[in-house]
Amino acid sequence: MPASSPPDETDCIARAQRGEVAAFSELVTRYQDRIYRFLVRMTRSQEDARELTQETFLSAYQAIARWRPEARLSTWLFRIARNQALDRLRRARHVEFVALDEVLHEQLPADTPTPEAVLQARQRVAALEGALARLSVEHREILLLRDIEDMPYEDIAEVLGISLGTVKSRIARARTGLLQHMPR
User: What is the span of the domain harbouring residue 72?
Assistant: First the structure.
């Protein structure tokens, strides 16, 4: 007997819009890890990210009936998450991002590198992290969405509520700024 494939996203959304909790739960399962990782990087707090992930999906659940297919579900969810995070950060009056070292550590392959390679990688990550810390919030945010979340430009424009041209120019400026802050 073949393994059952996950339900089609469009079907899940339609069923969730009709009030089927199991269908919405399937959508949560599909997106919760990506939303959580994004929120951890935005808030620099696993606890805040867990709470904000829950708040994001609660808001999405309450608004799913009004969601329209013109917007991709993933970009809609990231926009809700971003707004939740920015609201929390504004209230806290600070914006910090998770150290890239933590993110990269989670994504390292199982084979063990040499101590020298580990040291060099940590130094590169520290330099990159330092350079990122010197960027404006909007430049850090756009680099996270593009280079860490691998989001297409069109989706970034939708998440941030800016034009496609602004996304392209902001990414170019953010990358230039990042390179300027990298040690030589």
Answer: 7-98
Q: What contacts 24+ positions apart, CB below 8 Å, involve 147-151? A: 148/38, 148/41, 148/103, 149/34, 149/37, 149/38, 149/78, 151/75, 151/78
Coil/strand/helix, residue 100: helix
Looking at residue 25, what is its pLDDT? 93
69 and 108 assigned to the same domain: no
Contact predicate 53/35, CB 8 Å: yes
Please name the residue that has the structure tokens 């959304």: 13
More confident residue, 125 or 138: 138
Contact status, residue 42 vs residue 28, Cβ threshold 8 Å: no
**Are residues 86 and 105 both part of a single domain?**
no
What angle (nearest 5°) sits at the alpha carbon of residue 152, between those of residues 80 and 129?
80
pTM of the model: 0.69
83 and 113, same domain (yes or no): no
